[in-house]
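Standup notes, protein team

Yesterday: finished cleaning the Teichococcus coralli set.
Today: Phosphate transport system permease protein PstA structure.
Blockers: none.

Input for Phosphate transport system permease protein PstA:
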Amino acid sequence: MSATTFSPATGGPTKDAKVAAALGRRRRRVAAAVKAACYAATAAGLLLLLSILVTLFWNGFSAISLNVFTTVTKPPGSGGGLLNPIIGSLIQTAIGTAIGTPIGLLVGTYLAEYAKNSPLANAVRFVSDILLSAPSILIGLFVYQVLVVPFGGFSGWAGAAALAVIVIPIVVRTTEDMLRLLPDTLREAVIALGAPKWKMITLVCWRAAASGIMTGVLLAIARVAGETAPLLFTSLGNLNWSLSLSAPMSSLPITIFSYAGSPYEDWIALAWAGALIITLGVLGLNIIARLALRGRK
């Protein structure tokens, strides 16, 4: 249906008011239906998120106590806590992030500033995208074959290495995307002042893209903080207190996985407490980073 018709009197197209009005009503109905569907989908997503958070907070806060943060894991009914899983998660996540972030930052910078669309850059992007979408259990199996089997046992180092492999593609993608968003005129202005390219990248481009790069790092931390499958094949877990990275090391995700399916009420309560600690930890880290970046601006 068209709102214009050919008029023999004028020898050209003319507007049909009735047809135009009908088309306008149909467009408004379609727009209203699409808007209603968008509102409904948004409301459904928010309700699901709200239900998850309410359930987590309700069960998690009821299980939180000082004992959770000061006592190591113990057998059921012994009043155990989550001290060793918390410390183990912090150590492995920190080491994995410290290893993966510089590598991802440099690779992303190489792709955005040097390689551009070369065959090597396209190959690196392809591999990075595969790692980004690969199931984490495959990464755990890979690290198991590379670091666990040859060295004769599970260890915190292997767990940190598995988390680093997960961090790298996330930081690579966000770094490249953020640097590509910077206008070329910014780079040209710095080069015109006589600055070498490495100074242009480190002192100008990285600073201009700091907020986006930091967001990528936070996303990586948020993902690895709750990873269970890679750690099952690498650091395994440890019910006893241990800070040795050369031995099996406890972590919150593995403890939650083990406790949540147990028949013991106190272990299930500790699993809820551990899930709440991870959630609040990631949230707090995001808030602190945002405030720090805002202060720099």
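Follow-up from PR in the comments: Residues 17-63 form the longest helix (47 residues).
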